[in-house]
Amino acid sequence: MTITAPAPATRRTTGAAPDPTRSHARAAGIFYLLTFASSIPALILIGPVLNDSGYITGGGQDTRVIWGCLLDSVNAVTAVGSAVALFPVLKRQNESMALGFVTSRMFEAAVIMIGVVSLLAVVTLRQDYAGAAGDTASLTVTGNALVDVRNWTFLFGPGLVPAINAVLLGTLLYRSRLVPRIIPTVGLIGAPLLLVSMLGTLFGLFDQVSSASFVLTLPIAAWELTVGLWMTFKGFQPKAVTALMARDEDRLSAPTA
């Protein structure tokens, strides 16, 4: 009597193939949302040192300011993190523009950190010299100068570079259709408006914190929040991902001269 071993059952696969870009989109989206979650409270917490010209010789609210600086540091880190997370996907569309996006985010983070260090220097000077006998006028001038450094970094960092980011990332997302085109369109509209806001502040037409500035910067804020939410909870469009992968495979398999 011959016993025949049963043939192994064929495993059926159901459902669509996993999206290789999902983790990149989710990470980038979370980083964008963390940028919002850190930057707005940071601006509130560092208010005393920004608005009190005599902060460095007064009682001070150092712990509050330090927490604000820490949140601004988180803002800088998440700015770089979002670009790094997206680079492996975006480079399939246009590697030069994707690298430019990473570079602009790194520049933004560096400028933010200069402002953070300036405010921490004010805190250190206040703690070391506020109660000591000496030239308080010179100490006040030094403190105000450091605050001015931070204000200029805020103008040329978060006040300008997001316009460059929006042009680069918005163009990449619009052309690749990785997200609905209305989202990058908002960013591409908001970029020149943010530039107008920055130039208006630079030449003294209005204050950086004003109703005019708020209106001009609102589209870019809406763009960054929307793209962060979409990438976190929805990810990239499957058809667009498939098209990017196919084009990348065609490029790699193309014969070289």
Average of per-residue pLDDT values: 90
Largest sheet: none
User: Helicity range of the residues?
Assistant: over 70%
Backbone CA Rg: 24 Å
> How many helices in DSSP terms?
9
Note the overall shape.
elongated
SSE order in H/E notation? HHHHHHHHH
| End-to-end C-alpha gap | 64 Å
Outline the low-pLDDT stretches.
7-14
Structural class: mainly alpha
Strand content: under 5%
For the secondary structure, the number of strands is 0
Provide an overview of this structure.
- This protein is mainly α and about 260 residues long.
- The protein has helices at about 20-45, 45-50, 60-90, 95-130, 135-155, 160-175, 180-200, 210-235, 240-255.
- The longest helix is centred in the middle third of the chain and has 35 residues, at about 95-130.
- The chain is elongated and about 75 Å long.
- The model is unreliable at about 5-15 (pLDDT under 50).
